[in-house]
């Protein structure tokens, strides 16, 4: 029965991928019109050479971690060009994590609804941005429409050598290197040298006082990722908490989405230890506050990995890695943090199968916890 379900899922995925490819080809045919500018294949010193006074970044995918990492770009551009206007397009769920970023002049909320996309693009068109930067290697049809309607003077993209709407192109991404290497290439094309690739998050210490926590005297454990394959089940949550209790003599703060509240409270009840506590966080900014002042963070979720990196908090990061696989996500989106240790959950499976993070090696986990205690 399991084999049948797996085969059906595989067929459904292939049909979905095929239909998506067809939609993208039709969308590109209809929307990828030539701009009035000459395509520049090897751009250098773009800001000075093309008199760029304003840049609009597209981070419309709703990925919090990606947006946190992108704060490198905003800061480094403002360092050299303090009067240059920087705007960013993000989803509503990302807004508050960058709301107080001093290097952003405008933040626009992107909705997937066509009516809202057209409305926002009309607004941006009136503001006459000089350069739009989109770092997605693959565009959805609505993103194509949005870019074309914004009517920025120049557009910059990645792997867009065969596109008419993009004037500047970053030819390739090396997925064997960290995302900040891509940012280095982009900043270099803009005419900016960069040595500081740290991330910026502005947050308060309200959660610390609200929950009567002492700075650097508690551990944050987030058991959940973006899917069930990236999330720990109840039994493994309990195992990990037991190990943390044995190895680190501090309060353990469990965090997770509201729908996991009952599950985590059940775990705490079974553990019968007052040092273990569940804190419901209403937003990623509240998560950032808890992470910032923690002694150690344990997480399989990359957005929290990047939050820990922003504050250089000691972190135990749990990534999935296919043996002999082509997916290098664990390298490209790895922690930019000298105080981070990584555990890889490795399996030799086919490209269309998912690694279940619950196959974690718990002996290795204990060894890594011993290592981070020394940091």
TrEMBL record:
GO molecular function, one term: ADP-heptose-lipopolysaccharide heptosyltransferase activity
GO (cellular component) term, any one: cytosol
Organism domain of life: Bacteria
Matches recorded under InterPro entries: Glyco_trans_9, LPS_LOS_Heptosyltrfase
Keywords: Glycosyltransferase, Transferase
GO biological process: lipopolysaccharide core region biosynthetic process
CDD domains, A to Z: GT9_LPS_heptosyltransferase
One Pfam family in the UniProt entry: Glyco_transf_9
Record-given protein name: Glycosyltransferase family 9 protein
Organism expressing this protein natively: Fusobacterium hominis
């Amino acid at each position: 029965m399991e084999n049948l379900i797996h085969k059906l899922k595989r067929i459904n995925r292939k049909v979905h991928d095929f239909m998506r490819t067809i939609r993208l080809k039709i969308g590109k045919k209809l929307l990828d019109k030539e701009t009035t500018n000459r395509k520049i294949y090897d751009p250098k010193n773009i800001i000075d050479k093309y008199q760029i006074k304003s840049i609009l970044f597209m981070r419309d995918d709703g990925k919090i971690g990606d947006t946190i990492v992108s704060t490198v770009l905003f800061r480094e551009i403002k360092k050299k060009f303090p009067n240059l206007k920087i705007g960013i397009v993000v989803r509503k769920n990302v807004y508050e994590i960058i709301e107080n970023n001093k290097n952003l002049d405008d933040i626009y909320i992107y909705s997937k609804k066509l009516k809202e996309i057209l409305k926002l693009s009309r607004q941006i068109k009136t503001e006459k941005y000089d350069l739009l930067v989109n770092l997605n290697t693959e565009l959805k049809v609505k993103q194509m429409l949005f870019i074309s309607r914004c009517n920025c003077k120049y557009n910059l993209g990645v792997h867009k050598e065969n596109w008419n709407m993009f004037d500047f192109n970053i030819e390739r991404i090396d997925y064997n290197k960290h995302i900040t290497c891509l940012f280095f290439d982009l900043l270099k094309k803009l005419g900016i040298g960069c040595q500081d690739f740290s991330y910026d998050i502005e947050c308060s210490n309200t959660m610390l006082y609200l929950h009567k926590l002492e700075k650097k005297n508690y551990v944050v454990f987030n058991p959940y990722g973006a899917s069930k394959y990236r999330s720990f089940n109840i039994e493994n949550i309990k195992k990990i908490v037991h190990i943390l209790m044995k190895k680190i003599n501090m309060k353990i703060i469990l965090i997770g989405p509201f729908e996991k509240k009952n599950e985590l409270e059940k775990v705490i009840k079974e553990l019968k230890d007052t040092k273990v506590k569940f804190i419901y966080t209403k937003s990623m900014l509240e998560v950032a506050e808890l992470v910032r002042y923690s002694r150690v963070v344990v997480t399989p979720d990359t957005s929290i990995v990047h939050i820990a990196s922003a504050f250089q908090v000691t972190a135990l990061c749990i990534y999935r890695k296919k043996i002999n696989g082509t997916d290098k996500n664990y390298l490209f989106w790895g922690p930019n943090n000298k105080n981070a240790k990584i555990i890889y959950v490795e399996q030799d499976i086919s490209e269309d199968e998912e690694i279940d993070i619950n196959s974690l090696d718990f002996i290795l986990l204990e060894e890594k916890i011993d290592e981070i205690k020394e940091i």
